[in-house]
Design goal:
mainly alpha; two-stranded antiparallel ribbon; 2 strands; single chain
Length: about 325
């Protein structure tokens, strides 16, 4: 009975992937736009959840990789004429290099100090890019790839990154590394005494998160056409990721999926009320937290045992 239920859930998940993968065939322009945003925010939030929800690394500076990934695409396309999708990939590579540099400093910190350290890096990058003549200071850059990718091409890139982020997180959590990450989250010192290589595990997840975030950022700024440091490195990105993961269910694979859909739906619905949209999203977050402290999927798992992608190995 349990095996049949598990298979039926996988069939439903597979159907959802097929539906998403065929959106350019059957969907309208708005549906394509909506699903593109959903896939990209799914990738961002899965990586934040991997770091904070499963590894216990309070990351408040993921916007560092978002900004660097976006600017890499802009510079490579505008100044060097690099093929657009290679530029997107290089955005992930440069984000990994940045992550390696950051790890030299922030991995000496724990808890909220780690979070503050990542945020300080993002703020420093914002100041640097806004005063860097090469990228036209704070005025920003229009991204001009040659040839310009079609909407369908950008959608499939977002689809691959979004679905790929779920697969990567699922694979990591089902591995020996995943067991070590969850042990670190619960008690880092005890995990170290049990043989978990804490530093290596942290670094691995941090770099994976940097790469996927950088690639997703390249796609989203390719779609938006314009990048500017005060937006690319803004704390607003982290606020959105916290909203998505907390609403959906932190520490669950399905949580960011549900949270990303809710966020994109609400942000589009409230687009004409931009001045108060963040306030409304904050009120919604408070209501959900009060009603379901572990988020939507976290509460469903706790009360009903419902989960589709379990990190536990049978």
């Amino acid at each position: 009975m349990g095996s049949m239920l598990y298979k039926s859930r996988l069939y439903v998940l597979g159907l959802l992937v097929v539906v998403l993968g065929t959106v350019p065939v059957w969907g309208s322009d708005y549906v394509l736009f909506f699903c593109l945003l959903f896939c990209l925010y799914l990738a961002f939030s899965q990586m934040w959840n991997l770091l904070t929800g499963y590894s216990g690394l309070l990351a408040l500076g993921q916007q560092s990789f978002i900004g660097v990934g976006g600017y890499t695409v802009a510079v490579m396309c505008n100044y060097y004429g690099v093929y657009v999708w290679l530029s997107v990939f290089l955005g992930g590579v440069v984000s990994v290099i940045l992550g390696l540099f950051m790890s030299l400093f922030i991995f000496r910190m724990r808890g909220v100090y780690f979070g503050i350290g990542t945020w300080i890096f993002a703020e420093a990058l914002m100041i640097w890019f806004s005063n860097w003549k090469f990228v036209k200071y704070g005025m920003g850059l229009f991204i001009k790839p040659t040839p310009t990718p079609s909407m369908a091409e950008m959608y499939y890139a977002a689809f691959i990154v979004g679905v790929g982020s779920v697969v990567v997180v699922y694979w990591i959590l089902r591995s020996k590394l995943g067991l070590g990450l969850m042990a670190m989250r619960d008690d880092e010192d005890v995990a170290a005494t049990m043989g978990v290589e804490v530093f290596r595990s942290k670094l691995y997840c941090f770099l994976v998160g940097a790469f996927v975030t950088g690639v997703a950022a390249g796609v989203i700024y390719l779609f938006q056409v314009f990048i500017q440091p005060y937006k690319a490195f803004a704390i607003d990105w982290t606020v959105v990721l916290v909203f998505i993961v907390i609403i959906g269910g932190i520490g669950t694979i399905e949580g960011p999926i549900v949270g990303a859909f809710i966020y994109v739906f609400l942000s589009q619905s409230l687009a004409e009320y931009f001045s108060v949209s963040m306030l409304i999203l904050g009120v919604i977050a408070i209501v959900v937290i009060l009603a379901a402290p572990k988020g939507i999927m976290g509460s469903l798992q706790e009360k009903l045992g419902f989960e589709i992608l379990s990190p536990r190995r049978k």
